[in-house]
Amino acid sequence: MKALEKIKQLVGKFSIDPKEAQQIVCHVLKIEKVQLYTRNPEITSDEEQTMNFFVERRLKREPLQYILGECFFYNLKIKVGPGVLIPRQETEILVDEVLKSKNLIAHTGQRILDLCTGSGCIALAIGKNIPEFQIFGIDISEKAIKYAAENKVLNNVKNVFFLVGDLFNPFKEKIFSCITANPPYVKTGQIHELQPEIKNYEPLEALNGGIDGLIFYRKILDGAKKYLLKNGLIFLEIGAGQADEICAYALMRGFEVSNVVKDLAGIQRVMILKNSKADETQI
Ligand code: GLN
């Protein structure tokens, strides 16, 4: 069977999304999309078996990214699998905002702390684009850090360092000019409403933000002043409808809200805070 015919079969017979069918076929054949049409190669029976196995898994609602073992984030190839959250497109907005603020961050120092780093996608995308900065990615999950470390090698990023840790605990001093985080922010009671791909396969600990979804924002904002330099910035990805409460908490903790950026769906998605008021212990 030829590649294009196989795609047709996956879409027609198994109702696989056409784009996903294309991705499965290209991945197994190790070809780019354009080659499907220019070459339309013949598929061996081994290759067809692998494709069928992938489709079986997909029909059980396993995320395609886990099946293929990779996805793309900010032009980087990111390895993923059970135990690590799949990078979301919205999270690219956070990276965009950090890159836009590059000069401000450079002005206060050149060290960024990426909390709840997961696959390392945020840290690596920043590191790749700002080679003169040092980025530290922290996650409590050893599995996630293993993926992150592999992704560092895969993308040949030298200035990013991954550590297992509980939020700030691997660090002691006020050394960061910027903190980034996409923490778990789904309310515990709403996890069952997520689509099966997420709730049945992705790590619960990367999704569960506690009863009100805000546990990690409070922890991050409680600790941030101790680790952030004066005028340092915080970039947080936030969930739908969480902006007001997080804003209020940030103000209470002495941060200034610089901006809240919406995603393509019009949802307030990235909050940017500034450590403009130094406390007495600030250096
Ligand atoms: N955006 C994720 C979702 O699909 C949640 C990720 C997170 O909690 N940080 O719901």
From TrEMBL:
<dbReference type="Pfam" id="PF05175">
    <property type="entry name" value="MTS"/>
</dbReference>
<feature type="domain" description="Methyltransferase small">
    <location>
        <begin position="103"/>
        <end position="190"/>
    </location>
</feature>
<dbReference type="GO" id="GO:0102559">
    <property type="term" value="F:peptide chain release factor N(5)-glutamine methyltransferase activity"/>
</dbReference>
<comment type="function">
    <text>Methylates the class 1 translation termination release factors RF1/PrfA and RF2/PrfB on the glutamine residue of the universally conserved GGQ motif.</text>
</comment>
<dbReference type="InterPro" id="IPR019874">
    <property type="entry name" value="RF_methyltr_PrmC"/>
</dbReference>
<dbReference type="InterPro" id="IPR007848">
    <property type="entry name" value="Small_mtfrase_dom"/>
</dbReference>
<dbReference type="InterPro" id="IPR029063">
    <property type="entry name" value="SAM-dependent_MTases_sf"/>
</dbReference>
<feature type="binding site">
    <location>
        <position position="182"/>
    </location>
    <ligand>
        <name>S-adenosyl-L-methionine</name>
    </ligand>
</feature>
<dbReference type="InterPro" id="IPR050320">
    <property type="entry name" value="N5-glutamine_MTase"/>
</dbReference>
<dbReference type="Pfam" id="PF17827">
    <property type="entry name" value="PrmC_N"/>
</dbReference>
<keyword id="KW-0489">Methyltransferase</keyword>
<keyword id="KW-0808">Transferase</keyword>
<dbReference type="GO" id="GO:0032259">
    <property type="term" value="P:methylation"/>
</dbReference>
<protein>
    <recommendedName>
        <fullName>Release factor glutamine methyltransferase</fullName>
        <ecNumber>2.1.1.297</ecNumber>
    </recommendedName>
</protein>
<feature type="binding site">
    <location>
        <position position="139"/>
    </location>
    <ligand>
        <name>S-adenosyl-L-methionine</name>
    </ligand>
</feature>
<dbReference type="InterPro" id="IPR004556">
    <property type="entry name" value="HemK-like"/>
</dbReference>
<comment type="similarity">
    <text>Belongs to the protein N5-glutamine methyltransferase family. PrmC subfamily.</text>
</comment>
<keyword id="KW-0949">S-adenosyl-L-methionine</keyword>
<dbReference type="InterPro" id="IPR040758">
    <property type="entry name" value="PrmC_N"/>
</dbReference>
<feature type="domain" description="Release factor glutamine methyltransferase N-terminal">
    <location>
        <begin position="15"/>
        <end position="69"/>
    </location>
</feature>
<feature type="binding site">
    <location>
        <begin position="182"/>
        <end position="185"/>
    </location>
    <ligand>
        <name>substrate</name>
    </ligand>
</feature>
